[in-house]
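Before relying on records like the one below, remember that each one covers exactly one chain. Contacts with other chains, cofactors or solvent are not represented anywhere in the record.
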Amino acid sequence: MNIKPKYFLYARKSTEDDDKQVMSIEAQLFELREFARKENLEIVETFQESKSAKTPGRSVFNKMMAKIEEMENAGILAWHPDRLARNSVDGGRIIYLVDQKKITSLRFPTFWFEPTPQGLFMLQVAFGQSKYYSDNLVENTKRGMRQKVRRGEWLTKAPFGYVNNPKTRNIEPHPTHSKIIARAFREYAKGTYSYESLADFLALHGVTTSKGAPLGKASIKRLLTNRAYLGFVKHKEEWFDGSFAPIISPKLFEAVQKVLATRERPRKTKTAHNFPFVGLFRCGECGSMITAQWATGKCGGRYRYYRCTKKKGICSQGYLREESLVAEVKERLQTISLSDDVTDEMLKQVDTWEKEESHSSQSTLQNLTNKIKASEEKLDRLVSAFIDGDVPKDIYLAKKDKLMRESLTLQEKRKDFECVGNNWVEPLREWILDTKQAQFLSFSQDLYEISSFIKKVGTNPTVRDKSARFGAPVLSEFVAERRALGKVLNCDPTGNRTPISTVRGWCPKPLDDRAVYI
């Protein structure tokens, strides 16, 4: 007398894309129970799970198989063999239990099976086809991903600041969110924001977590280091050139990375006092920094004094009252300044030169092009070395990232130069404006602006014997020298005017016989 097997019903729905067209678990359960009723099959337990069968390790499936191994004359009811296994380990396990008579029946509404040599062969074919389908789908997916990377297309959901374009199958800057990202990068590059304050800034612009809270530190750091905003595509921890528009410039990105690097080990800062020249001057005797303090005068008034910190040993320098220091600084500014009529004439001449030089930038452009080509060749050699196994993966990824960023920076420089032309006039124009600013500040009462200007143009600022000194650019020293000799600015005592272009080091590009005179 044949005893009918007792069946375990198994329904599976994969959570991965390759199974999207398979029936849902609810539909499978309904169809299988209806099939069992028509075929008069006894179902003793039902198992269902949502997990891919590409690899072994399904907990519900293993639980069912463990029960089958402990009993005799068991059967399995499933929609199709590919619901049971898509890998050789699970498929082989089922076939082995059929050989051992543990499984005496496998029933599928869409597939025939009998525990005979022919039936086992067909079951092996079905499992093999399921595995082939999965393996082939993986390879097709990988090939498609590689092709998208070669085209520079974004592979997944667009990062914040971008939006997916279904027509181009790529991403493009979001009209509003991209501006928020660019603003966040600009603000953080100033060095005045922390992770927390930048998260609050973004929250004010609607960038929060799903629960409406400001972003966490880790999210802020990922945002500030995301190379997608440079127009790069990431695939398997490696960045590639993208074909979509960047949101920020390489210059801004590098500025943010520099701020991030300096804050890896943040230093505690003390509360700033109202001493505009602290941190600017050094002692001319011992080289220690000049500090400041408040002191009360004989008449009860409070005054600011500057003195040597004497951290490098014994120093004989005494205190210097701020009014005296300011007078010394303004006197020095007066020596390196030029009057407005002179600077206006010089700026007009610079404008003329700039127009003449606008068409003579080919050599510089060629130089940048050669550097870009050399960088690309280095990248090609690096990729070849990695493919040949000569370079470890971690070194390869770090070098590649550096070369790609360098190449992008060079390309932006070339682009800027093509738009602006030769930049040699900018240092000269800036110096002329500085001399104009020096003239203005020599009569100004804004001590912080004076201090900032000295930091910009001055070199080796020192205080010694109650006298403040600082160096200046070569051409500014030339102006100071002429003043010291009692020569007027527009002509010397003999009536001969001196061309600026004869002074060495005044500009990156000499101007031959063209000159403006002081």
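Confidence is low (pLDDT under 50) at residues 16-21, 488-518.
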